[in-house]
Amino acid sequence: MKKKLAVLSMCSALSFSLFAGINGQPVKAEETSSYYLLAYKGGSIPSDFETKVKLAGGTIERIVEEIGIVEAKSSDPDFLSDMKKDKNVSAADKELSVYLEEETNPADGQPITSIPQDAPNYHDYQWDVKRITNDFKSHEINPGNHETVVGVIDTGLDFNHPDLKANADLAGSKTFVPGTTNAWDQNGHGTHVAGSIAANGKVLGVGPELKVRSYRVFGATGGAQQSWITDAIVAAANDGVEVINMSIGGWRWMAHNLGEKGDSASMVAYHRAVQYATKKGVTVVVSAGNDSRNLNSLHDMQSYWLENYGLEIKGPSRVAPAQIPGVVTVSSSNKWSTDSIAFYSNYGSVVDVAGPGGDNGPVYDGFYRQDPKGNYLNKRDFLYRTLSTWPTYLPNNSLTPNLNGYALLHGTSMAAPKVAGIAAVIKAEHPEYSPAQVQAALRNTAEDFGKSGQDPLYGSGEANIYNALTR
To answer: Which among 42, 150, 159, 197 could bridge 421 via Cys, Cβ 3.0 to 4.6 Å?
Structure first.
C-alpha cells in the first residue's frame, strides 16, 4: 500500500457551489472541507478502509501504514460521527495543527551589531556549546561521524550553508508539506537547530562530524498537520536515523486540541509514531515548551488556557510531544545560573535533562520573575542567547542584521538540539546502545544543576557530552 500525499493547503479549504437551483431555488450554501485523523485499532489498517471512508463522504489524503494512521478530508457534517461507528477505528477526530515554539521577545529595534561579520569564527560567542563540550574538548575525543544521523523534523535546512554543507544530507532529506518538493528551509528555525547539532565552521555544533538529515514538516509560516509529523517520524525511523530532534509542540498545541476523552487521534498517532521509532532504535528528543509552566500542575494548565485562549479545560490533559512516553524531554538552561532555568522554559517531572537554550540575562530574569506581565524589554542582553547557523539566502535575522548566515535565538527549541547532538555522539561512541541506554547515559553524565539529584527544573541536570565521553 503506498502512502498518498495530497497537494493541499494546510488549512481547511473553503469551496463554493455557484450552481443556480431549478425553478428559482436558492444558490447552494458554501461547504467547508475539514481534515480528519483516523487511528485504526491494533495499528493495522483494514482492507476495506477506503470504501468506508468514501461511503462516509470522505477522501483519503495520507496513509501511515506502519502504525495504522489515515488522514482524510470531507465536507460532510456527519463524516466524523459515521467514522466513529466503524468498529475498526479506535479514535477519530478533526486533525490538529502543531506549531513551532514561538520566538520569545524578538529584537524589537535593539539589534546586536557588536559581532563582526568578518571574524574568522564565532566560537567565543558559543557559551552554550563550549560549556557542554568542555570548551570543545569533546570534539577531540569523538566529534561524531557520518554513519550517525540526526533526523531534524522541522522547517528544513540550508544545505549549502558553509558550516553545514559537509554534514547536511540533501539526497536523503524529505518534505512532508503538501505543495512543496524539497526540504530547503524557508523559515530559519530548522537551520539554526541543525547548526547546534552538527555545524563545522565559524560556529561549531555538539558533533561537528555528525550527519543531519531534514524531514521538513513546516512551510515558511504557519503550522503543520499532525499526520505530516507522524509520517516524518515513521519515515525517519525507516531510514535508519539514530536520533530524531523535534523542537516543536508546546501548550499552544494542546490548548486547542483536546480529544473528547483526552485520547484524540492525534495523540494516538504521536504515541504510536514514537513507539515505532523507539523500537527501531531511534532516540527521540523533544523540547519542553516555552510557556513558563509547570507541566505537573493541572491548575497551572487550566488557568493558562483560560487566560490565553478563553478555554475552560476540565480533567487531565497533556502537552505534546513533551509528555509523550519514551521521548527525551528537554528544558532550557541559561548562561548565568546553575539554579534557575530560563524564564520561559516549561518544567516538571517529565523533564529528563536540560540543554543550554539561552535567555535575556540575569537583569531581565530578575524583573520577569517579580512580574511576568511587566515590560522589561530594555533590560535584555541578547548575547545571553545562543548563536547558530541561519539560511544564507534568507534575510538576515532582525536581531543580528549585520550577520549573514548566523543568528542569535533562545528557547527550548535551541535547548533540545544540544541534547540531540549529545545523544548522537553517545551513539557514535557506543553504536550498540539502545534508546534506553542512550537516555540513561544522558541522565547519568549530566551536570547536576539545581537541587541535588533529580529535580523538576533540570531533570537529572544539564546534559554534557564531555562527561559522557570521559566518565
So the answer is: 197
Element of type H or E holding 406: strand 406-409
Q: Residue 426 sits in a domain of what CATH number?
A: 3.40.50.200
CA dist., res. 217 & res. 417, Å (int): 17
- pLDDT tens string 29-45: 445 889 999 999 999 99
C-beta atoms surrounding 245 within 10 Å: 35
Report the distance separating Cα 406 and Cα 394, nearest Å. Answer: 11
Lowest mean pLDDT among 109-113, 189-193, 322-326: 109-113
Could you give the number of structural domains in the chain? 2
d(CA 384, CA 463): 19
Phi-psi region of 43 (alpha: psi -120 to 50; beta: other; left: phi over 0): left
Instruction: Decide: 49 and 71 in contact? Cβ < 8 Å.
Output: no
pLDDT digits (tens, 9 = 90+) for 107-154: 676 889 899 999 999 999 999 999 999 999 999 999 999 999 999 999
Cβ atoms of residues 178 and 148 within 8 Å: no
**Per-residue b/e over 273-300, b at no fewer than 16 CB within 10 Å?**
bbbbbbebbbbbbbbbbbbbbbbeeeeb
The letter for the amino acid at 282 is: V
Helix (H), strand (E) at residue 251 = helix 251-256
Cα 232 versus chain centre, distance:
12
Three-state SS annotation for 121-175? CCHHHCHHHHHHCCCCHHHHHCCCCCCCEEEEEECCECCCCCCCCCCECCCCCEE
- The CATH number covering residue 41 comes to 3.30.70.80
Q: Is the pLDDT of residue 12 over 60?
A: no
Do residues 303 and 263 touch, judged by C-beta distance below 8 A?
Answer: no
214 & 301 share domain = yes
Least confident of 234-248, 286-300, 385-399, 453-467: 286-300
Q: Containing domain of residue 87, as a range?
A: 14-95
Closest Cα partner for 210 from 288, 129, 280? 129
For residue 63, give the 3-state DSSP assignment.
strand
The phi-psi region of residue 344 (left if phi > 0; otherwise alpha if psi is between -120 and 50; otherwise beta) is: alpha
CA distance 170 to 290: 30
Q: Does 1 reside within a domain?
A: no
Task: Assign 384 to helix, strand or coil.
Answer: helix
Both 306 and 196 in one domain: the answer is: yes
Residue 422 has pLDDT above 50, yes or no: yes
Strand partners, 38: 70, 92
| Measured CA angle at 419 (ends 416, 420), to 5 deg | 85
CB distance 334 to 340 below 8 Å? yes
